Amino acid sequence: GENVEQHPSTLSVQEGDSAVIKCTYSDSASNYFPWYKQELGKRPQLIIDIRSNVGEKKDQRIAVTLNKTAKHFSLHITETQPEDSAVYFCAASTSGTASKLTFGTGTRLQVTL
Amino acid sequence: NAGVTQTPKFQVLKTGQSMTLQCAQDMNHNSMYWYRQDPGMGLRLIYYSASEGTTDKGEVPNGYNVSRLNKREFSLRLESAAPSQTSVYFCASIRLAGPYEQYFGPGTRLTVT
Asked: How far apart are CA A3 and CA A86, in angstroms?
């Protein structure tokens, strides 16, 4: 089955700096890659996703890049703010949809003042 | 529109006791999922139901059973709880078509002593 590895497990950045979280996947058939944000004590929520026919996608301060050849994808957050502090999960699916997601182990991002 | 709801929010069980976690969604979604979340392990799929009347095992099904009672409800049962089942349990649902996103419930924090 699919295996998704996520790094780093913790990340501390100063407010205003950029943060990058990286994930690799094992199944070359994977074609849908969402990112979820989970604030402390709350449910995971989708923040951005990308499909295998696209190399990059942006939404304001958040961007995701995908390298199918290397089987890795990354989340980039620019101009970080304290409210970006949370745990971020990457995931992958071979179905082209949000069904049957395999999640990474999560990255705890701390944005310090 | 409540989205995805879960009951109870917290539960403490003794080893060997049984209980059922309830999940309901009012978004007319077809697919529903049960995950467990453990520190450093991300979200792991226990069982899922692609549509009413069907259920399938996920990555970690041992010790659990599920029932897709109708399109709205998907319950998770622990027949004989073990300390290894101490975790936070999330239910999620998605449509089979349209914008794809797994909507998560608020979670159930279960402790087995």
From this structure: 23
Kindly give, in sequence order, each residue whose CB lies less than 8 Å from that of residue B67, ignoring residues fewer than 6 positions away: B55, B74, B75, B77
Q: Does A106 touch chain B if contact means CB atoms closer than 8 Å? A: yes
Instruction: Catalogue the E-assigned strands of chain A.
Output: 4-7, 10-14, 19-25, 32-38, 45-51, 56-59, 62-67, 72-77, 86-92, 102-103, 107-112
- Tell me the C-alpha distance between A26 and A109, whole Å: 24
Between CA B82 and CA B64 the distance in angstroms is: 11
Q: Among A1, A98, A103, select the one facing B94 at the smallest CB separation.
A: A98
The single-letter DSSP state of residue A80 is -
Q: Which residues of B touch A97 (CB under 8 A)?
A: 94, 96, 100
Contact A107, A64 (CB under 8 A): no
Please list, in sequence order, all residues whose beta carbon lies within 8 angstroms of the beta carbon of residue A71, skipping any fewer than 6 positions away.
Answer: A24, A25, A26, A28, A30
Per-residue pLDDT of chain A (113 residues; tens, 9 = 90+): 889 999 999 999 999 999 999 999 999 999 999 999 999 999 999 999 998 888 999 999 999 999 999 999 999 999 999 999 999 999 998 876 667 899 999 999 999 99
Task: Using only the alpha carbons of chain B, give its radius of gyration.
Answer: 13
